[in-house]
Write a structure and sequence with these properties.
There is one protein chain. With about 280 residues, the protein is an all-alpha fold. Helix 4 crosses helix 6, helix 7 runs antiparallel to helix 8 and helix 8 packs across helix 13. The relative contact order is 0.13. It contains 17 helices and no strands. The chain has 2 domains: about 80 residues, no CATH class; about 180 residues, Hypothetical protein af1432 (Orthogonal Bundle), CATH 1.10.3210.
Amino acid sequence: MSNLKSIIKKIDRLKPISQVATKVMSIAEDPESSMSDLSKVIIYDTAVTANLLKVANSAYFGLPEKVDSVHQGIVLMGMDQVANLVLLSTSGENLQTAQQGYDLEAGDLWKYSVSSALIARELAEKKGVKETHLIFTAALLKDIGKVVLNQYVKDSFDKINTLVTKRNFTFREAEKEVIGIDHAELGGMVAESWNFSPKMVEIIRHHHRPQESSISEFESSIVYMADTICMMMGIGVGSDGLAYRFHRKVVESLELTERDFEKIIAGFAEKVKQLEAMMNI
């Protein structure tokens, strides 16, 4: 079993979420916040401002007028959309690298994470959840633990794979058995080290087993479902992609029908355009 202390220490090697993104998340989660509050945080970061204006003026969004300021962008796009774009522009570096332990090439984890976030947001809106930004962010960063655990999974892959194929372990269970910790639990630790809200930490930690979440089961279920839909479409399916349990009770708790799944999958072509616009940040 690997030394857990050495694994946890590697969290510090991740590029932390920027202060601007952290403040933006806090503002987006505060029902008392305003567009002015959000604008004041963003305008002092030239890189974030430039990226926001670039995306706002892209062909995909097709806004009725040219966006020349952060405040104008927030007015035309809405606080949630802008908050999501800021997070995307500042969080991609950790997720862009290849994850050989999970058989993911450079960019695969990032594409999968953004896809999952877009679908999670759609599900949250469909279910009338107010905290769509919270769910978008959690879905985007839910697999950050893989970045830290990657090398350990690569070194122990034969043992992990044997448990999955011979003893019916899920990939997460096999990680825990062989390495001593799984990527979801480690992701929760990363979220804590970045001072994310308790709810965000819970969603990331329990995105494979939402029924075990004590404070955010419903939100965790939405992120789990987005993850499952991505796998159904073959997005982000690496060495671990099909080695997870399908929790039918979670689907039932969300009251999603087969028709709902069909609509989401059929509409993903439009999401890909949004994905490409955002991935070009």
